[in-house]
Amino acid sequence: MPASLVWLAIGAFAIGTEGLMIAGLLPAIAADFHSSVATAGQLITIFALAYAVGSPILSALCGGLDRRRLLMAALLAFALANLLAALTESLWQLIAARVLLALSAGLFMPTAYAVAASLVPPERRGRAIATVTSGMTIATALGVPLGAWIGNHADWRSTFLIVAGLSLAGVAGLRFGLPARLPLGASTLAERLAVARRPAVLQALIVTFFWIAAAFVLYTFIAPYLERAAGIGPDGVTAMLFLFGIGSAIGNTLGGQLTDRIGPVRLQLGALVFLVLALAGLSAATALPSGQALIAIVPLMLAWSIAGWAFHPAQTTRLIRLAPEVGMIAASLNSSALYAGIAFGSALGAATLERGGVTALGWVGALSAAIALALLAATARRRAASPAASQPA
């Protein structure tokens, strides 16, 4: 893999750290601004919505710019937005800062995926995309536990300062580590909408939506789930989140390698089957005594994280294959579908928690994953029955 991919992964690490740490900081933020945790939770929903809407629009407006400069500008804007977040004096100011964070992240990530794919031969795109995604998986392993720890023991504002520093280091790395004259990705918003309306692309985006929604139904409320099902406190939750991050890193690595070896669709089908079983098992585990439940939850969370993160590089690779001439557009649309799914999954999880308690979270998540599995399987069967399809999946 080209060494320049490391700098794209560092940018992804900074973005993933900020995006994932916020869940562990919500109680501290709510206390600081004298609001409820539920109200502070809008920081996650609004970020996801701003990313979903802003990513394709900004990518369209900036597609004709030099990609190295575009990546540097997006990451620099992300750093500045983190500084603004650290200086906010009200929850609404922090929400506004998170909108800026979402817009800059929504410009950086799809561009980074498209650049990674352009730097390697087609048969190595899965591993190249997984290299960039590894920044997000490392953030999952370190960012969420770190955020939870800081939220309990230090000032939550310091997390934004740390991420700002990481982002600035990433800007410097991109300046000297990426090759010049990367291929442009100019396209209008109308052209992007035209890509989204392609049946194969639209079906893939819907699969992305239900896959990530399945995970965030439970992941958004993982702390109360673990406390109720396994009887563990904040430090135990932090340890379990670290375990989840390790599984995510394993899944991302396997996903990149197996995508190139067996193809994205086969990998995705298997990953979704395991995701359905793992989420359903996590709900079933709540019926056990807390000690036995913890023994069951550990391997189930590993299976969930490995399967969930193995799916991501395969799906990005598949979308680029479905629309190879507009790979940056496909990656941008996939990011939008992903964050729309996060917003939907979080809202669905909140409604589920209110009406059915933590026991129902895994069942609802498993249902969403099963919908993604059914849609993908149906698409795969149709394409298998049409060998003359012009673009491989």
Q: Please state the CA-atom Rg, rounded to the nearest Å.
A: 20 Å
Number of strands: 0
Oligomer: single chain
Q: How much helicity do the residues have? A: over 70%
Structural class category: mainly alpha
DSSP strand content: under 5%
Number of domains: 1
Label the CATH architecture. Answer: Up-down Bundle
Could you describe the 3D structure shown?
With 393 residues, the chain is an all-alpha fold. It contains 15 helices and no strands. The longest helix is centred in the last third of the chain and has 33 residues.
Summarize the structure.
The protein has 393 residues and is an all-alpha fold. The chain has helices at residues 5-32, 37-40, 42-62, 67-86, 91-118, 125-153, 157-177, 189-196, 199-219, 222-230, 234-262, 264-284, 290-322, 327-356, 359-384.
Secondary-structure blueprint:
Elements lengths: L4 H28 L4 H4 L1 H21 L4 H20 L4 H28 L6 H29 L3 H21 L11 H8 L2 H21 L2 H9 L3 H29 L1 H21 L5 H33 L4 H30 L2 H26 L9
Helix pairs in contact: 1-5, 1-6, 1-7, 3-5, 3-14, 4-5, 4-7, 5-6, 5-14, 6-11, 6-13, 9-13, 9-14, 9-15, 10-13, 11-12, 11-13, 12-13, 12-15, 13-14, 14-15
